[in-house]
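Tutorial handout. Part one gives the primary structure; part two gives the three-dimensional structure as tokens.
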Amino acid sequence: MRDFTPIRSALISVYDKTGLEPLVAELNKQQVSIYSTGGTLSFIQAMGVPVIPVESITNFPEILGGRVKTLHPGVFGGILYQRGLDRDEQSIQSHNINPIDLVIVDLYPFEETLKNTSAHQEIIEKIDIGGVSLLRAAAKNYHDVIVVSSKSQYENLARQLKTQAGQTTLEQRQRYAQAAFERTSAYDQAIAGYFRNLNDVPEGISLRYGENPHQKATFKGNISAVFDKLAGKELSYNNLLDVDAAVRLVSDFNPNKTIFAIIKHNNACGIAEGISSANAYERALEADPVSAFGGVLICNQTIDLEAANLMHSLFFEIIIAPDFQPEALNLLMEKKNRIILKQKAFTNPNESVRSILNGVLVQDFDQKIVQASDLDVKTNRAPSGQEIEDLLFANTLVKHTKSNAIALVKKNQLLASGTGQTSRVDALRQAIEKAKSFGFNLNGAVMASDAFFPFPDCVEIAFQSGIGSVIQPGGSVKDQLSIDFCDKHGMAMVFTGYRHFKH
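Part two.
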């Protein structure tokens, strides 16, 4: 059994080319013959490095849209043949098979695709076949072949080749083989998990009724993949709509911050950031303690006993959190009908489907989360640091509020929102009146609008109420009127470039 083994030939087929260039350059410097496929071939050619198409080995072109390109005895024979074994030496000579000493493969991003889309066919197309087979073949023959299964290994291998004159040790090849098998194992588990979830979806769960008692309703999905139901009665149609709204809203906020929201009829009647789950709950409840009655509560952090004590006296339908302290759970379970959901890590579907007329409408979910870098300051006065925080908070909230929508925020706390109005002015007036009715001072608050202002009337009303900063998409032919008013009265206004209608 050999220890140091030179690399004379390499097969490179990667999806993500990040960090590949220095390794290819080192292989070229070591005079390694490089074989490659498709986009990787073009990438290496663009570097000016000699590269041989895999088709020259297989004498067969890529077929089926690239689904089949390396699955050929000419490729796998070169990887799997055992150097020095008479039988294998005779086989490769009689079939004119070229040895392959190094295999570099970056698999199709199945896990990433699963996070970014729910489109079944797109997910299926990201199941790598040839790449996994190449990794397993090279790892199996680690005595003679070295296998690279992750871009995180490129730099290390390049350094080893440079210091070891283009050779690798048996121990190194064994470690790379182990990593390759770990990668293919995790990859297969992700694929199996996806199919498991498909097969676990029931035909439908009959609900007590739909939006109203005279309507029948069914949930077609796998709720247990999203939540562990710890206590309470069965979820209803309206419960599920509110739960979905709650989960989507909170998932758009920074998971490292403590966010608490109270949902009623798919809109947030309260949401705030706090220093603890208890503090965040108190701040969320302040926005509208009346509407909170019978609502859905959600927090992105563990519910502790202090928070449970505070909310226990409130009548609410559902509480959602990633975890509950045992004492908090015991207290919350005292109300037998109260639904307690422990949220699991899961990926929201990317597509929305709605039945209309004699068909369905399908669209991507609005997944844009505006960042500080997206803000385009349009006024002479730029918003302060706290105002920027509040503007981003309000903009994320207004995205999840029924249009026409306005959200008023101060110190990462919803003061009030105007929801589902046919006029943006009406939405603003509704929000202002509601905030004042619960005793909030709007001086220094910010305003978010889900769409542009066709006239300056909204910023005029906002200024008269003490609101100092505004976030909106922009895009009206009369944007300048609103900008001019803000400049004249010392207000700050930023544009995002993204409208967030929610019908």
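Part three, for discussion. The chain has three domains: 5-197, 219-343, 366-495. The longest helix spans residues 170-200.
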